[in-house]
């Protein structure tokens, strides 16, 4: 294999800007998106579903959380279509704006006691807009970094994925600080709204950074060569249905585990005796560790391949699922921190970190935004379904049912192992290399 020539100074500048823009954009998107996750676990059941039985209110609250994940594939298709036709940068400006405005509106939305059933309906609609936004953001942000990179795609693309735990840290700190400053009563009444309102400030910063990044060289080159591009979604479904299906399976376990650690465990930890603040603190520590884990394991995948890293992570997580809940149930704050740090900071990044580069490398440039976004966001349904499924299992059985939940997590992990082994290794593949054979049309 020939060595990659050193990028020109302008390329290096644009790569740095692209990586910074992708990381910051992902951080902002997931700050808003995961802020909702924290609020759904500790606030929304009381504010928007106060007329329901507490157990049903928890299920309903997680249900609205799930709608965001259900909307994400739609965002991937919508923004992926126009991103493949018009460019990555334009779509990324739109996705960031949509997320910031939606989150701000959640912050001013009246509760059930003020407007009745209109409150949860409005909450669901805004959550859908959040889901559409984050569904379009991820694919574009990953491509912005990967298509600007001339080497070490796993490392550079991983900064987009690292934005997710960074957003979790920021959202958790925002909720924690607000709760500490306002007190429990005021926090439930109005304090929880403050972190959502701050979304407009983050939006302004993100748009400024994103405006300084050029369109990706790979897209511009493909645009110059490919004169007639059909509908990207149709092209992906027609030419790469197997790859798309396998990409969904590869990412499914990562999302199930992500939601288990960041959403379900938050509510379950409080239920088994930990204070809300203890769980939030542990989650903040584990999310900070996840940033390093995602970047580190992604860099490892540049050297040893995407498949080995994902396989080892999935198998280890399948086994760890049976230790997770006993650690949480122990009553020890230290063991709670260990449970989340090992799960979110070490094992989950092995499955999740390499996905940014892997999804980028599976599809052709002219359908890459659509293919990568759709595969990733369909896999993301696992994160929306898992907390609802687990909460319903516990409600139906009347007990913790942690063994059944651990078995479910392990099954998803083994499914991902099978799917990633069915794919070819991609870490040495050029982004300009065609994955599909194009028909030759007469001019």
Written overview of the protein:
The protein is mainly α and 443 residues long. 81% of the residues lie in helices and 0% in strands. It has 20 helices and no strands. The chain has helices at residues 9-42, 44-47, 54-86, 88-107, 112-115, 118-146, 153-182, 184-191, 193-197, 199-210, 217-225, 232-239, 241-271, 276-304, 306-329, 333-352, 355-362, 365-379, 381-397, 402-422. α6 (118-146) packs across α18 (365-379), α12 (232-239) packs across α18 (365-379) and α13 (241-271) runs parallel beside α15 (306-329).
Keywords:
single chain; 443 residues; mainly alpha; Growth Hormone, Chain: A; globular; MFS transporter; MFS_dom
Quick overview of this protein structure:
The chain crosses the membrane at residues 30-49, 55-79, 91-112, 124-143, 155-178, 190-209, 243-267, 279-297, 309-328, 334-359, 371-391, 403-423. Residues 18-428 form the Major facilitator superfamily (MFS) profile domain. This protein has 443 residues and is mainly alpha-helical.
CATH topology: Growth Hormone, Chain: A
Pick out the low-confidence regions.
439-443
Number of helical segments?
20
Largest sheet, strands/sense/barrel: none
Do you know the CATH architecture? Up-down Bundle
Q: What's the rounded overall pLDDT mean?
A: 88
Question: Into which percentage range does the β-strand content fall?
Answer: under 5%
Secondary-structure element series: HHHHHHHHHHHHHHHHHHHH
The overall strand count is 0
Topology record:
Elements: H1 9-42, H2 44-47, H3 54-86, H4 88-107, H5 112-115, H6 118-146, H7 153-182, H8 184-191, H9 193-197, H10 199-210, H11 217-225, H12 232-239, H13 241-271, H14 276-304, H15 306-329, H16 333-352, H17 355-362, H18 365-379, H19 381-397, H20 402-422
Helix pairs in contact: 1-3, 1-4, 1-6, 1-7, 1-10, 1-13, 3-4, 3-6, 3-18, 3-19, 4-6, 4-10, 6-7, 6-18, 7-8, 7-14, 7-17, 12-18, 13-14, 13-15, 13-16, 13-18, 13-19, 13-20, 14-15, 14-16, 15-16, 15-20, 17-18
GO molecular function, one term: transmembrane transporter activity
Transmembrane segments: 30-49, 55-79, 91-112, 124-143, 155-178, 190-209, 243-267, 279-297, 309-328, 334-359, 371-391, 403-423
Domain Major facilitator superfamily (MFS) profile: 18-428
């Amino acid at each position: 294999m020939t060595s990659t020539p050193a990028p020109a100074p302008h390329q290096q500048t644009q790569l740095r800007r692209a990586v910074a823009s992708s990381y910051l954009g992902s951080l902002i998107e997931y700050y808003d998106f995961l802020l909702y996750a924290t609020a759904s676990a500790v606030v929304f059941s009381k504010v928007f579903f106060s007329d329901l039985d507490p157990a049903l209110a928890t299920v309903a609250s997680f249900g609205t959380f799930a709608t965001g994940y259900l909307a994400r594939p739609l965002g991937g298709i919508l923004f992926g279509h126009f991103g493949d036709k018009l460019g990555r940068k334009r779509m990324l400006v739109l996705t960031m704006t949509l997320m910031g405005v939606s989150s701000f509106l959640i912050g001013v939305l009246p509760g059930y006691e003020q407007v009745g059933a209109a409150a949860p309906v409005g909450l669901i609609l805004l959550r859908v807009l959040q889901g559409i936004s984050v569904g379009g953001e991820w694919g574009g942000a990953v491509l912005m970094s990967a298509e600007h990179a001339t080497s070490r795609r796993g490392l550079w693309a991983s900064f987009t994925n690292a934005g997710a735990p960074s957003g979790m840290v920021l959202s958790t700190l925002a909720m924690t600080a607000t709760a500490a400053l306002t007190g429990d009563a005021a926090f439930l009444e109005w304090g929880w709204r403050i972190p959502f309102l701050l979304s407009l400030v983050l939006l302004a910063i993100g748009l400024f950074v994103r405006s300084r990044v050029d369109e990706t060289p790979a897209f511009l080159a493909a645009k110059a060569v490919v004169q007639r591009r059909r509908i990207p979604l149709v092209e992906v479904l027609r030419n790469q249905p197997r790859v798309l299906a396998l990409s969904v399976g590869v990412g499914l376990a990562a999302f199930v585990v992500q939601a288990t650690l960041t959403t379900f465990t938050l509510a379950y930890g409080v239920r088994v005796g930990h204070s809300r603040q203890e769980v939030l603190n542990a989650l903040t520590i584990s999310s900070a560790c996840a940033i390093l884990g995602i970047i580190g394991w992604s860099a490892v995948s540049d050297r040893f391949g995407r498949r080995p890293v994902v396989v080892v992570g999935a198998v280890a997580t399948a086994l760890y699922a049976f230790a997770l809940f006993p650690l949480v149930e122990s009553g020890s704050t230290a063991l709670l921190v260990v449970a989340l740090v090992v799960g979110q900071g070490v094992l989950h990044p092995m499955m999740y970190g390499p996905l940014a580069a892997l999804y980028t490398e599976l599809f052709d440039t002219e359908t890459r935004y659509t293919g990568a976004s759709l595969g990733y966001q369909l896999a993301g349904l696992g994160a929306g379904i898992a907390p609802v499924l687990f909460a319903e299992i516990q409600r139906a059985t009347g007990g913790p049912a942690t063994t059944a939940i651990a078995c479910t997590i392990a099954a998803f992990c083994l499914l991902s192992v099978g799917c990633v082994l069915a794919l070819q290794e991609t870490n040495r593949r050029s982004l300009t290399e065609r994955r599909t054979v194009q028909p030759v049309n007469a001019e």
